[in-house]
Amino acid sequence: MVRDEWSGLGAYLRHHRSETTPRDRPGASPLSHRRVPGLRRQELADVAGISVEYYTRLEQGRASRPSREILTALARAFRLSNAERDHLFRLADERPPRPRAPAAEIRPGLRQLLDSLDDTMPVTVHDGRLDMLAFNVAAADLFGPLFDDGPYGRSIVHQAFMSAGLREVLGNEGAEQLSRVAAAEFRKALGLYPEDERLRSLFRALSTSSPEFSGHWDRGEIGTWRSAKKRVNHPTRGLLAFDSEMLHDPENDHWVMLFTPRRA
């Protein structure tokens, strides 16, 4: 690795150390008087659990390639976001760690967006494991009855292949489209979260109980469909048509689906 890249790592560490205030460290006194901002090298090394000599060499670009364990400890000490942690790993010529799971709750601002669009369009939010996390009032009016509180009741994949009322709501063409997309997205989810036991259990359940799932799975498709046209049979309003668009929050691995009404 060329020295400029190591210098980039050192500069990144120095920057974050200068942004980490002493009071962020448990037990530190907020009354400490300092001539420079941030933590001292010794303090940062103590928080990360590494020697100050080694940390100093990292900042100065004189250390050997840091291990993944060292990088993880530094990311934790600096309280880096996932994106900041991943950049730290790349600067050290390491592949960023795989996420263990999507965030369990959506951001408050995203919740506010859902509520503000109640009278405008249906909006849903699901995570990278294809679990439905939230939907606004307009979306509940369309899709709420399809989801239940069973062990896989919030799984879009499970509903795509096991919901008895799906074809009545989406029609044959729409249900087939959802099945194809769900299988392809499910393959992607298993690749992102291979140790997730709930996903693995769902795969076993669908493989043994749904020939339709097995057929789609054997096609080997994988990917994300960002845009689509959807038709929904509403029990009182008749056939409704929407242009759907998906937006991704990579920090939390949440997907926001917006349904813009159009003429059927």
TrEMBL record:
| Annotated stretches, region: Disordered | 13-38
Membrane spanning stretches: none
A single Gene Ontology MF term assigned here is: DNA binding
Q: What is the lineage of its organism?
A: Bacteria, Bacillati, Actinomycetota, Actinomycetes, Kitasatosporales
Organism of this sequence: Streptomyces corynorhini
**InterPro entries on file:** Cro/C1-type_HTH, Lambda_DNA-bd_dom_sf, MLTR_LBD
| Sequence ranges assigned to domain HTH cro/C1-type in this UniProt record | 38-85
CDD domains linked: HTH_XRE (cd00093)
- Protein's name in the database: XRE family transcriptional regulator
